[in-house]
Amino acid sequence: MTQKIKVVVIVGARPNFMKAAPLLRAMRAGKKIEPVLIHTGQHYDQTMSGSFFEDLKLPKPDLFLNVGSGTHAAQTAKIMLALESELIRLNPRLVIVVGDVNSTIAAALTAKKLGIQVAHVESGLRSFDETMPEEINRILTDHISDYLFVTESSGIKNLRREGIDSGKIFFVGNVMIDSLYQNLPQINRSEIIGKIGVTKKNYAVLTLHRPVNVDAKESLAKILKIITEAVVDTEVVFPVHPRTRKNFEAILADESIDPRRIKVVEPLGYLDFNALVKDSLFVLTDSGGIQEETTALGIPCITLRETTERPITVILGTNHIAGTDPKKITAIIKKIKQGKNKKNHQVPKWDGRAAERVVKILQKKL
Ligand code: UD1
To answer: Is residue 45 within 6 Å of ligand 1 at its C-beta?
Structure first.
């Protein structure tokens, strides 16, 4: 029997887990690759990590680096230090990184400097806003990767403009949407809306965790005030990210955010969160991935940012870029309530088979 090719898959933070799950499944099914799963420990709580492993039926990581939280430099450096010796010991043919979190760049840089090839899944996305830590992580990771797996056509254009060799770029589709489709039966069985006490198509979902929106008490208060004013007659369910929690509690103590209007819940697991989104009237978010999931589910999304690195969700999908302009948000909500929201078109290659394409290419090239 020929020996399998050893490939390390890195996960670290919440938005990585649903991207790694279909890749691991496709590698096992392909039988030529032996995946080794390494969790950096960037996210470590049950709500941010453990529940995702359960919901997505991810195997227990082969290694947990336990790096935890810290400043960007501290977190990135800790991941690199912890990972370097493990990669030397494991000596894989390739390291796969996904998305744009600190674990992504830290692992890519560590592998590349050891002479190990790097594959970046979800490559080529650009917000052109370098104040976002994720934008820096994306650019740097792409420029040291050997295989760049792209989710949407804008990615190909961005990478070519930056001078990346076309031979390294592969347009495969979206592994995050693979996970969504694979898990739809379980998502449909979730009882979360009853548990929260809202009814189908009668509520909005809000998520906020970008440092620029939540790290200062004043910015968080401002954005929540805008949302309470713009969203009238609709309850807003707000699963609060740990990053947002501290300032949110401080605001509740001295300002009057009406708790009957904004229903605060703990961060939800993967299946419950997508069930909540699927039955909602619309979503308000500053996240990246949720712009894609709402597009795939056909749910209107109002993105509370000035830019998106995922333009296809606006061109073909249900996404509106509203910034934090109350007038814009109100006008979009009005349209949604009149049933005039953007219609959803099938996004090329978001068909649940992106991970299979990635693995096929790797099996051939490695
Ligand atoms: C990270 C990613 C962001 C992604 C987000 C999803 C980077 C630069 N940012 O941001 O792109 O959208 O994850 O959640 O990688 N904390 C806990 N429990 C945990 C993890 C974190 O309480 O399990 C708290 C800690 O106080 C920590 C804070 O959340 O300081 C922020 O965590 P961190 O990993 O630094 O970044 P995120 O804001 O989660």
So the answer is: yes
